[in-house]
Fold these 2 entries.
Entry 1:
Amino acid sequence: MIGRFSDDGRSWRAIWIALAVLSIVPAVVLFVSLVGLLQTDAAVLRGGIQVGMRGPLVAGEATIDPNFGATSNALGTRAALDVVAGRLPLWNHYEGFGAPLLGEMQSAALFPFTWLMAFRHGQTIEQALLQLLGGIGAWVFFRRFGIGGRAALAGAIVFEVNGVFAWLRNAIFNPVAFLPWLFYSVETAAELAADGAPWKRRAFNISLGAAMSALAVYAGFPEEVYLYSLLVAVWTTYRFFGLRGGARVTFLADLCAIAILGLGLSAPALASFAAYLPESVLGGHAEGGFVGTFLPPTAALLHILPYVFGSIFNQSSSAEVSDIWGNIGGYVGLAPLLLSAAALFVPGRRVPKILLAGWIVVCIAVTFGIQPIYDAFMMAPLAGITACYRYITISMIFSFIFLAVMFIDAIDKPADRSHRGWMALAILLTTGLTGWAALLASPVFEGGSVRPLGYVWASTAIGVLVLLAICFALFARTRRSATILTGAFVAEAIALFAIPYLSYPRRGDIDQPLISFLVGHVGFSRVLATEAAGIAPNYGSYFGVSTINYNDLPAPARAADYIRTNLDRFADPLIFIPSGFGITADEQAERRKALRPAFPAYARAGVKYVVAQADFGLAPAFATEPNAPSHYDLANDAWLDIAIPGPEQPEDIAVLGMIVSTHRGVATGALAATLCAQADCARGRVDLAEVGDNQPARIELDRSLHVASDYRIRLEKIGGERAVGVWMFPVAASSGVTTRASPAASMPGAAPRISIGGNVDRFVYQDKTVGVIELPDVRDYMSAGSCKLHIASRDDLTADCPEPTRLVRLELFMQGWEASVDGETKQIDAVEDAFQGVDLPAGVSHVRFVYWPKYFGAALAAAAASLALVLVGFLVAARAAASRGQNPGRP
């Protein structure tokens, strides 16, 4: 390993072999995505405008947290595109009314791995590289600690596919890779200090530690870094008291240098974050919002047998299980649990084992709210505003893996066979703990709430196989015993990691025509997505379309206040989506009813387009039952006649809607409708190529028809080769609705679910997925009375004003924005408490807007100075190593 290997060929061969082995899993992950065996693109899965989706091999989700799309992918891609274009990713014009991008943190805007998202499959490549980096870090740390080659490589592989990497592919994913590197830096600093190494030999470790700690901050999830840094602090304390005299001073000096340089390197991200917080909404992350929040005891079994309740968010799971899936932070697995238990009994390395076991106890107590440890931990700074029950998991997983490799390393020595008794005891303890966890989870299984039971049996089978392999190792020769244990340890980890991949769709794409239309027409205006339709929140950032919907933490307070006051009183401050997040069903119904009347207010906020489903704005013509639908295949030149009683109040009908099946896009031709009231008729048709399978078909009539009494609707299939399926729903006999099919067949008790609308908005664009409504009287993004404006970009314009005028810019007002008029700095005022206003002089003037967070210039200077020192440290270490003829990491 680096720092312990001599420079003979055998040692370097071991290094290259380890790197090659650790590259296998990331390479397979990349192959699956790049070749297209599975659709792993978050933009397709979470962008909200999927087309041509083909279901997964296993029902469920491939990852727990949807923010692997909304923040990591959408905002990360926006940051990457800014960097590739040569811009600092400080502000995002495409989210809400605009929002800080670097200061938001979860975008990981200045994280070098994020920049890969500017390219196709960038997120998959990023995550594969981070897995590899984490595996290498675990390997070099275990070897530095003195673990043998076989055990160190096994532990590195297991860390590379750990339960956080398997289940969470959002910003939580990123910092995980740097945990073992921080341990490596501490361990190396202690060893170099104990050896009395001069500063030139310590410079490499100082620079490496600073770089890794800064990357952990830039990775975009400070809660995770904070919590696992507590474990690093425990390990640092242990190493400090293991040193003597001057070595302690050297050790602390090196760690201080690492901390100072790391903070300096990460100063731009920290300064942006600090500037944003006072003007943001934090939800539960403010004022101790997470105190008293933890997982239920039923979740304990999921840490040992991760899929015993089914695949992730499997729809057959109970509500309780779905809640657990939404809050759990990863899993441990059976083999690490068993081998860790055995490690505690095997002699040697007593103090580090006790420390790791103690940390595991703390993690379990924090995760499940076990008193009094939980209350004591909540007294730590920032603990009350952090979801500790979820984000502390990676440090617990690392501790289990560390203990397990200590045990494998201990029995990988033929001189000692006493491990068998300890393994037998560990098997009994682990079996007992698993049984106890199953007993705690028994309420979930009662009443058959977990289905299908195949998951229960499959998870049990995996656990039994692991136990059998370990039991078999009891009777094997010592060296073979270590081989069997290593195989079971690694095989279980890889199998558990691979299972979520079966829930990725086999195929799917983005609705590119819709994106092309919006990009080509929206200009500087904004887009609103309605319920179950349109670009998902934040994905306007990905596609380059400014969307008013957002999903972020932190979120701009001014934007949240404006939306709730002027646009949607039910809007959640952190998640402005139309699907009713955090409100009751009645409130959501009221929210739907209030949306259309609020269109003028949206237009005043700069919204030009509303993306909606085909039946948007339509109301049911009559009541139908939701259960037992069937579809009637309507062939060419055949018809369905639906007779409908007159409405209670006369109304005008201009649009019809009904749900149809195109048989996965095979049906072609057109679906025509004729609406007749008395002898007066209106007609319309829709091209089936523009209708999604099992989606509403929208038929706009050639004119609005006034209906005051009974009326009828005839549906006809025209042209094309395949029949179209019209979904039929049960109707009560008392409804008065009757249906007849050509030539003279009666269909009692069933009818299409017809929706009608009168003075509704016409679509300016429609395809199989959605339609687009253009709002009238949209306020310009920039306006200034009678001035003539030439807008070069959102931040740059030229104004020609006949008199002094106020320029109004529909970008979010926030501290850090500066305006210059002909090079002279001008004050920006808040307009309507949300937007920006700046005074313009008469005549021609050039106006520029710049977002520059407070102290960001000083932060850049600190980062530049720190980077220079880090590079000098690497250079000094390389020159010193060259003069000694050894690698720079060697003590």
Entry 2:
Amino acid sequence: MIPNSSPLNHLDSDVIEFIVNEISGAGGKEVLFCGTAGKEGLVTDVKVLSRGNSYSAPAILKGLASGSVLIHNHPSGNLDPSDEDIAVASIAGNAGAGFYIVNNELDNIYILAPPFRSEKKKYIDIDHVLYFLRDGSKISRSLKGYEERAEQLDMAVSVSETFNDDKIALIEAGTGVGKSMAYLVPSVLWAVSNKERVLISTNTINLQEQLIYKDIPFIHDNVCSDFKAILVKGRGNYACKKKAARLGSEGGELFEDQNIAEERSLVKWMEKSKDGCRSDLNFVPRASSWGKIVSEADLCGKARCSYYKECFFYMARREAASADIMVVNHHLLFADLAVKGEKGGFNEGAVLPPYSRVILDEAHNIEDVATEYFGASVSKRGMELLLGRMVSKKDSSRGLLPYICNKIAKKKGTLPSSFIPQVSALINEKIIPSIEYIRSVSSEFFDVTAYLSMEIKKKEAKAEEQKRDIRVRIWDHILSGEEWLEVKQKLADLLRSGRQCAAQMKTVARSIRDVEDKEWKENIETLVMELNAYTERLLSFLDTVESFFFMETEGHVKWIDISDKIGGMSIRFNIAPVSVAEMMNEKVYSNFKSAVLTSATLSVKGGFAYFKERTGLEKTGERLKEKLLLSPFDFKAQVFLGIPTDMPLPGDKGYEEVMIKAIADALYISEGRAFVLFTSYNMMNKAFREISGDERLSSYPMMLQGEGTRNSLIKRFREDERSVLFGSDSFWEGVDVQGDSLMSVILTKLPFNVPDDPLVQARNEMIEKNGGNPFMDYVLPEAVLKFKQGFGRLIRSKSDRGAVLILDSRIARKSYGGIFVKSLPQCRVMKSTFQEVSNELNTFFYSLRKN
């Protein structure tokens, strides 16, 4: 709430009188008003939008414009914003409108979001931005090893112009440009001068932490101190106090107790925790334990919850609502866009407060994240967990439904005489047996589907190529085959029984709510909400599976993931769009006044055509501005790139043995201090086992991805300058190790996508159908971008030196190989036999040790 603020500072006296009269005429209930703020910010005219329930007519909100103000009363007098308030304010903010909360007497006001007036936009003074980044500035005096970089200045100008002109910028900034400072300075200055929030989205936790704990505090100390920056995390990171209280007092009636010691530890931790965030735990809880206390949107009572004021999630959310700079990850950003895109742009579950200007760092990952959020998936494990929450598989006396029966039974004598036997009979004689049946049918359905999917895979691959983890593409014509008739019959049974059960659960919820007993309703409200949430989850699951098997999904690809897990076979159905370009333009770019997409790896063959086509940026027209900024580092002096030409081709007989020996030889030459990057977990594990036994390398600590968290492995790697880290996929990017700990990067294979990946297949087919060349237009560019990321792990500062060794001779022997090399910064390249490359590598490292 704004300190010492009077409604008269924001509302004209006639407006106040009008609002008071309307609220009185509505019996003191909630009323939603819309007004217009004048040049001085005072609302001088207002009208009623809706009475009784300000969230019943979201279509009304579409007419909002810059300078509009929504005004909404809280009859209780408590002006703390509810989840619904924040959701409406989010929609209003996207249109430039503000949101005020008042009490019925209009003697108190809460400015949740001020209105934005486009005519008041304060342009960034570009010279002012450059002043902070040039030699002689406070930044230059405070930053160790500072040097003025033309590329950084160029990027800062582009970001400033993007904000000023409401444009979209696509900027590749090579390693060493200092892109975070180049976008943070104009972002902060814009947010402060325009009182307009800027959102910064990243793909990795590492970059988020760098921004929040290093770069932004530095900006605060050396550029502007009058701003607030917040790291915003998703709801699933926070514990729910109400769920924890119930777990502590009644968990024995609800849940099985095999994890009771861990659950008690979680409850004790929550009692002392300041923010209830999972990252503050000093141990990693089991998913089932965390699930019993985690905050979940559809199980949240929001402002009606007795813990609302002290709720960890909403305290964090209120902090975010007051921030000038929000730092999030791409997944949270897309979750927010997905929620806001539902129900005509309005959804009370909006994840983030209003924002309309964004920085998308690590933007090379955007297509993958968008594909996930514009698609859908369900799993056998997910269904088991859902059914287990309703009725425990191991003990049918536990779970939500038996718990509700027990609660009802304890109210005998205080509730209508017919109510208890009717509801208890419906639960015990209909719903619980139905859930047991659904559990059985669901398990059979998933297992038969998995068997048929694996049969498809066997026909596609040789027996020796069978893997524990498989991915099987499912076409509509495959599902029409006779062998799938049993699956469809079981699915039809599952759909029928599941929807019948859902209807019965809705009946129970309505029956409980219809009881006219205030004390009863207060006690049972949480259980009814939980029952409704599980009902909707069940229906959503059934709808997704039905779409997968019975509906043609043009423009989408379907596949089934199957893998062996400790607890049994994991089976997941997936549906994803083949292209996200149109959706990106419609649901992402069109919702932002300005956006900056940046990364060190966006271009292929010196241009952005591939990235623009994949992510829909080509559809933004004249709004888009492009900038390619090379790294200021001297790669010719800093990097030796070795490419052995006599290595067997991947897949050739003897390739693995030769490759493993080459890795060992190279590690001996570099004295450890290396990343060895793979495209296959199996190959990584095999190489690690064999190389770990090489006596020549016994003094070099060997680390393997999966033997610890990524952060713990990197920490150990930095601390021991002679160590070696074997990594796959996630270690190709987002890892920053400077200095002598990392002086060699070995790329074992060119990072082409797995050719039988269903999504890759579908995209290749779409390209071919449209007259393109799948390899040149998709497969190769994807590999080039990933290759650039892997190469980029080596040189992270001006003083770094080292070698990159590529053990895939396709880069030298195939016509497309030159595209990979040309995509890199100019460095010293040697293409020759492995022996000659090794000799030169030895000379290179000898000179480094000598100097």
